[in-house]
Design goal:
The chain is α+β, with helices and mostly antiparallel strands and about 375 residues long. The chain contains ten helices and 19 strands. Strands 1-11-6-13-5-4-2-3 form an eight-stranded antiparallel beta sheet, with helices on one face. It has a three-stranded antiparallel beta sheet with strand order 10-7-12, with no helix packed on it. Strands 18-14-19 form a three-stranded antiparallel beta sheet.
């Protein structure tokens, strides 16, 4: 089992002084760390249509990027290229285990585990990310430079690569296996591989107001909500045809604000929005669907494991009604199932002790069995 080791400060200190504020190197954050997936298996994943992957390299000193799937890597030679595969935690239980050591940050903030394999001299160029990332060094060595936050010009080095101008480094370090580099959003950084290596990036979403407003608009449209019309009975006579006056502006803003002030609507939006996966899940539906009684009996013998990347959450405002959000969908089981919802969302592994008493509820048992049959949770054996 992977255990995060902080030699120089506590988790509380990290969250208070580094999280979202400044980058930091965590030496030997994972002691005796070994690759969680082989380069060959990673390359094999990048051959799959459903898996998001890309190759970054230089040709005639110009940056190039290609999106997968890839059927061969021979043409890229033995130096100067990087293979990047997104959401590998969706496809490998060993890689999914890398998420657990970072559970001091709630999963609604988690994005995915991206893995890069790079040959000597490989990298993706100097760039700025809009998310928090813990870059965990696997096999090999990689040199990282990180600059300070500020006004950095960004430009398209390639249609698929947004780079930034050269920067002065505040961190210039060689990462060895087990070392971790944490970088908050907005800090320019550049990694160059010194020898054949693997890097594991545990990324956490940092959604902008624009992103969330766009998501909210899609949500209210899909649910046919927010249809209250602007109303202005007893309007005074207008004297300036081109004017939106202060009272009209207040009316417009209030109509929109009513959506944001609707706690039930916003809770359902937040739960649905943040439980959606960015990349496809590697679901393995059962060939022979189980009945609810089968699930209950098998749970006595072995636990159920949440499939990698599955997102399921509850909110303080609605959990008392037994509401949870699984893969973008809202489910309500009633007040008596509040603890079942919490157990479902808080634990990657579900045992009989956690769920058995709740499986007596027909609605919960029926839905949970459907999830198992679809592959959202699975019995390892």
């Amino acid at each position: 089992m992977l255990t995060l080791h902080l030699a120089d400060f506590s988790l509380e200190h990290f969250m208070a002084y580094y999280w979202q504020q400044r980058p930091v190197v965590i030496r030997q954050g994972f002691a005796n760390f070994e690759d969680l997936i082989s380069p060959n298996d990673l390359a094999g994943l990048a051959m799959e249509e459903a898996v998001e992957s890309r190759l970054v390299y230089k040709k005639d000193e110009q940056w190039q990027a290609e999106n997968g799937p890839f059927d061969s890597y021979k043409r890229f030679g033995k130096t100067g290229w990087t293979l990047i595969v997104q959401a590998v935690n969706h496809y490998s239980s060993e890689v999914a285990a890398l998420v657990k050591p970072f559970d001091f940050i709630p999963k609604w903030r988690l994005d995915d585990v991206m893995i890069s394999y790079a040959t000597p001299g490989g990298g993706v160029g100097p760039h700025i990310d809009l998310y928090d990332v813990f870059i965990c060094q696997g096999s090999g060595r990689r040199q990282w430079r990180v600059g300070d936050k500020g006004e950095h010009r960004q430009f398209a080095a390639h249609a698929a690569l947004l780079h930034t101008d050269p920067f002065e480094a505040i961190i210039d370090v060689e990462l060895l296996p087990g070392d971790i580099l944490y970088i908050p959003p907005g800090f320019p950084h550049d990694g160059v591989t010194l020898e054949e290596s693997m890097s594991y990036s545990v990324g956490f979403r940092a959604k902008s107001g624009c992103d969330m407003l766009s998501g909210l608009a899609d949500y209210v449209i899909d649910k046919e909500l927010g249809k209250t019309l602007l109303a202005d009975p007893k309007r005074p006579i207008a004297h300036h045809q081109g004017q939106i006056d202060a009272s009209d502006f207040t009316l417009i803003r209030a109509n929109l604000q009513n959506l944001l002030d609707n706690d039930a609507l916003m809770a359902d939006f937040a739960g649905s929005y943040f439980s959606k996966t960015k990349c496809a899940l590697d679901l393995q539906p059962l060939d022979e669907p189980l009945e609810a009684v089968d699930v209950a009996e098998m749970l006595q013998q072995q636990p159920l494991i949440r499939t990698g990347g599955l997102r399921c959450f509850y909110l303080d405002g609605t959990v008392a009604q037994g509401v949870c959000y699984v893969d973008g969908e809202r489910h309500e089981f009633g007040a008596s199932l509040q603890q079942a919802v919490a157990a479902l969302c808080d634990n990657d592994t579900l045992s009989a002790a956690l769920l058995q008493t709740f499986l007596d509820d027909d609605d919960f048992s029926r839905q949970f069995t459907a999830w198992v049959n679809e592959g959202f949770w699975y019995f390892e054996n």
